[in-house]
């Protein structure tokens, strides 16, 4: 089915008539079938266009077109849909803008892996043909993602869908690059960067994941160049390194200038092992005298700290590796070897030449590429950078003003500030083919650099930079580039920017959220969003993060197939508090389905008992029964609670309030109380109850709709209603006239009474429906009035044969008792059980306890047992004896009391 055409074919139109023909069991597949397309056909997800309404906008965090969506995406988008659906129902002019991210390195890595399976590399295809392959991949997975969005029921405005490499966003990216360049905030330079040798591209610091790897400290002799020179009786110094494969790039050995041990060595020269090249011993504050020997080798082209030392001492930079981490010509005889093969070969040669002192195995933290998982190299490279300090300072200053971003939970603001305060310049060039090409050209003759939105007018004399921009560079512009910027007169930009709320995972706070904030402030002068709601990660039921490698991932589409989208959405919205991780479990999914089934059956009962009603209309307040007053007061409290907690993005608390009201108040009590009226002979009372039932159900469905849109829509259209869809129906509001503390107190007392009677019956194993004498002793005048006025409810739920209420009620000698607030409840035991049967049962119990007491007494009277058995065994027997003696005494007393009554 085409979920995204302007008009679908052969799909149900939203003109369903109210019906009582509802199946007895909730079937999510039947409920959800065709519903999404119907919503799209009616254009219900587009902004209202009402200029008097307040705008409310959300941009979707664009999923990468690398594959199918996972449960984390389902959680993220569910929360956004809940927010936008509620705001739409509250009358806001809402826009939820969809789109996807080209995800440069991630998508290119996927396509290259696919090609490798066919024995092809991107270089075999060439840039143009390879890019065509990636676009084909993008189209395939974008289609899959949109089908998943449809299954989730996301109320997105597809007419505004964007892609991070569409024409409009490309224009925005070029303008931002050129403007930052012209301001001196983008520069090109040779620096040590993180390098992914598989993807053959630069990485930013936050694209590097550190893992513990097995390694070693290799202690190597560096002989003095002056063969007559010795230090501490040796003609060499000892240098420890974890990376002997970079030794061919060494240009110095350094010691700390304050280290008295090595002062005389500064200025001496040593021979670089395996290279037979002289390098100097220098002094630099970088060296930690307390670490190892206090002497370190300096390799400016292969270590970021060494790079800085090299700059201070004007050392040569010798890059010994190619971009695939194989050794180059500077590595001498090791040229062409993989870096790890070269390490083994160098270690063997050092051992053979007597230059290896010792090898100490270690486990150390090593950087790996987030996308390809290969070990990252620190590599000297010419790259483009963003100068971050002024942009970060602007973002930090903005947090002190009225346009500050509101972080939810608040603690993440500290993480944001810490990131901004300790930020490094951002390497934005990537040696990839998939992405936004850097708008820089180099003159083929003069080497001059030209940066501009448009290509040079004489392109034959220029060569464009082959690199592309970091994915995050374009996605950092997402909240405003998707609205039509850089055209600041674009209708959507003027109407819906800044956006209201961003919902995303806390794990991309530095990657994306921070960058959107400083780019938005720089280019629009405004924060990109008012609120940023940061949620946690989805974990399995054991608390382990879901991952493909562990095989514990869950496909949300599989969950929907079994339980329905509404059940998954209910679980995800109620999973945890903001900022916390959530554990997925099928037990919780079962509970979610059961809750919806409860709603389904309660709704079915209500709808079947509404007669020929066309629209719910509350009766005059003077005609409300206690139950009516109570349920409407509880409804109003729930409306206020849900609205308040939604505004705080505390969906878990909102869910708890809804669950308690629907399951306990409405289903377990009000519906049950309504049955007495609906089956009675008073037609007017019946009509009133029908209207209250229908009104409360209508309000429940509206409250639930943002969370579980499919089933609420189906039920709402099956009952008397006005309007074409809950999607655009009015959200419940506070009705102060419904608040009735007195009715809530009175009903709470009735419920407590009925619950206590049920508890007595359960304790006595007596049937709930059997008639019993019920005595209620209370001197509380309010309680006496409540119980006497509402005797019909007590009759229905407590089934009293006789009912006595008052302060002078005398408790029967042998009765079951429960104490409730300001009252005591008595039911004669003879009313609950057959006394002769009870006597027989108690006599059997008495015999059993007597036998146990006799056995334990004999055992403890055996001196050999007491003397030889372990102390804990003896003590255990003593405890059993005491327990059975107490039970025997209680049984005898109860038996005597019953025999006296029988």
**Global Rg:** 38 Å
Major sheet: size, sense and barrel closure?
Answer: 4 strands, antiparallel
The CATH class of the domain at 196-379 is: Alpha Beta
| Gross CATH architecture of the domain at 196-379 | Alpha-Beta Complex
**What's the count of strands?**
29
**Which fold name is given in CATH as the topology of the domain at 196-379?**
Isoleucyl-tRNA Synthetase, domain 2
Task: Give me a quick take on this structure.
The protein has 902 residues and is an alpha/beta fold.
Structure explained in plain terms:
This protein has 902 residues and is α/β, with parallel strands linked by helices. It is built from 29 helices and 29 strands. Among the domains are: 184 residues, Isoleucyl-tRNA Synthetase, domain 2 (Alpha-Beta Complex), CATH 3.90.740; 132 residues, Isoleucyl-tRNA Synthetase, Domain 1; 90 residues; 65 residues, Helix Hairpins. Strands 6-5-14-16 form a four-stranded antiparallel sheet. Helix 19 runs parallel beside helix 21, helix 19 packs across helix 23 and helix 23 runs parallel beside helix 25. The relative contact order is 0.09. The N terminus is likely disordered. Keywords: Aminoacyl-tRNA synthetase, ATP-binding, Coiled coil, Cytoplasm, Ligase, Nucleotide-binding, Protein biosynthesis. Its main location: cytoplasm. Belongs to the class-I aminoacyl-tRNA synthetase family. ValS type 1 subfamily.
């Amino acid at each position: 089915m085409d979920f995204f055409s302007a008009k679908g074919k052969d799909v149900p139109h939203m003109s369903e008539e109210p019906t009582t023909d509802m199946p007895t069991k909730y079937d999510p597949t039947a409920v959800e079938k065709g519903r999404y397309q119907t919503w799209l056909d009616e254009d219900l997800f587009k902004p209202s266009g009402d200029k008097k309404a307040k705008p409310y906008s959300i941009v979707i965090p664009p999923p990468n077109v690398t594959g199918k969506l996972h449960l984390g995406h389902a959680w993220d988008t569910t929360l956004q849909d809940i927010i936008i659906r509620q705001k739409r129902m509250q009358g806001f002019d809402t826009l939820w803008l969809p789109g996807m991210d080209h995800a440069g390195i991630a998508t290119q890595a996927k396509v290259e892996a696919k090609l490798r399976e066919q024995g092809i590399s991107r270089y075999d295809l060439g840039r143009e043909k390879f890019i065509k392959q990636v676009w084909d991949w993008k189209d395939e997975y974008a289609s899959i993602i949109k089908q998943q969005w449809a299954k989730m029921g996301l109320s997105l405005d597809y007419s505004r869908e964007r892609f991070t490499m569409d024409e409009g966003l490309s224009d925005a990216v070029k303008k931002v690059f050129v403007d930052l360049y012209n301001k001196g905030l983008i520069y090109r330079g040779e620096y040590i960067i993180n390098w992914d040798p598989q993807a053959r591209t630069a990485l930013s610091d936050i694209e590097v994941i550190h893992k513990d790897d097995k390694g070693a400290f290799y202690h190597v002799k560096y002989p003095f160049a002056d063969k007559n020179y010795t230090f501490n009786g040796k003609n060499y110094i000892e240098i420890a390194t974890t990376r002997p494969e970079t030794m061919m790039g060494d240009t110095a050995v350094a010691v700390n200038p304050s280290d008295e041990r090595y002062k005389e060595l500064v200025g001496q020269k040593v021979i670089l092992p395996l290279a037979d090249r002289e390098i100097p011993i220098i002094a630099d504050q970088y060296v930690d005298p307390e670490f190892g020997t206090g002497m370190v080798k300096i390799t400016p082209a292969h270590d970021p700290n060494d790079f800085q030392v090299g700059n201070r001492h004007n050392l040569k930079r010798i890059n010994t590796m190619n971009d695939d981490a194989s050794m180059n010509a500077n590595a001498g005889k090791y040229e062409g070897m993989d870096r790890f093969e070269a390490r083994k070969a160098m270690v063997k040669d050092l051992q053979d030449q007597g230059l290896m002192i010792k090898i100490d195995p270690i486990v150390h933290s090593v950087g790996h590429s987030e996308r390809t998982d290969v070990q990252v190299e620190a590599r000297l490279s010419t790259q483009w950078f963003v100068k971050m300090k002024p942009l970060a300072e602007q973002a930090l200053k903005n947090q002190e003003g009225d346009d500050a971003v509101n972080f939810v939970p608040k603690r993440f603001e500290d993480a944001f500030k810490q990131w901004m305060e300790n930020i490094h310049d951002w390497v934005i060039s990537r040696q990839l083919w998939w992405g936004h090409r850097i708008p820089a050209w180099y003159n083929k003759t003069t080497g001059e650099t030209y940066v501009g939105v448009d290509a040079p007018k004489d392109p034959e004399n220029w060569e464009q930079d082959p690199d592309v921009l970091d994915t995050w560079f374009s996605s950092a512009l997402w909240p405003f580039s998707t609205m039509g910027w850089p055209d600041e007169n674009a209708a959507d930009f003027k109407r819906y920017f800044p956006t209201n709320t961003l919902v995303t995972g806390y794990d991309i706070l530095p990657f994306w959220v921070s960058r959107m904030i400083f780019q938005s402030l720089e280019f629009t002068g405004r924060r990109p969003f008012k609120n940023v709601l940061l949620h946690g990660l989805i974990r399995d039921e054991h608390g382990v993060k879901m991952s493909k490698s562990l095989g514990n991932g869950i496909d949300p589409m599989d969950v929907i197939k079994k339980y329905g989208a509404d059940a998954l959405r209910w679980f995800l919205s109620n999973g945890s508090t903001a900022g916390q991780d959530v554990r997925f479990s099928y037990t919780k999914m079962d509970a979610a389905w059961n809750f919806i089934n409860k709603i389904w059956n309660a709704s079915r009962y209500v709808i079947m008992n509404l007669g020929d009603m066309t629209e719910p209309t509350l009766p005059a307040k003077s005609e409300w029964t206690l139950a009516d007053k109570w349920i409407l007061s509880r409804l109003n409290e729930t409306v206020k609670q849900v609205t308040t907690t939604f505004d705080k993005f505390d969906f878990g608390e909102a869910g708890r309030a809804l669950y308690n009201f629907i399951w306990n108040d409405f289903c377990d009590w009000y519906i049950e109380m309504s049955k007495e009226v609906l089956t009675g002979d008073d037609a007017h009372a019946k009509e009133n109850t029908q209207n209250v039932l229908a009104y409360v159900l209508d309000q429940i469905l509206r409250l639930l709709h943002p969370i579980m849109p499919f089933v609420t829509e189906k039920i709402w259209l099956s009952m008397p209603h006005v309007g074409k869809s809950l999607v655009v129906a009015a959200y419940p509001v506070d009705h102060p006239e419904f608040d009735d503390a007195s009715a809530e107190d009175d009903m709470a007392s009735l419920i407590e009474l009925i619950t206590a009677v049920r508890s007595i019956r359960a304790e006595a194993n007596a049937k709930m429906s059997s008639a019993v004498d019920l005595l209620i002793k209370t001197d509380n005048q309010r309680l006496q009035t409540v119980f006497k006025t509402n005797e019909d409810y007590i009759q229905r739920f407590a089934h009293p044969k006789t009912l006595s209420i008052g302060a002078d009620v005398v408790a029967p000698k042998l009765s079951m008792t429960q104490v409730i607030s300001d009252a005591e409840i008595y039911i004669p035991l003879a009313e609950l059980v057959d006394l002769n049967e009870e006597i027989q049962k108690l006599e059997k119990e008495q015999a059993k306890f007597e036998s146990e007491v006799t056995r334990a007494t004999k055992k403890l009277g055996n001196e050999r047992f007491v003397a030889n058995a372990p102390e804990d065994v003896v003590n255990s027997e003593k405890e059993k004896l005491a327990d059975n003696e107490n039970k025997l005494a209680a049984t005898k007393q109860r038996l005597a009391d019953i025999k006296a009554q029988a």
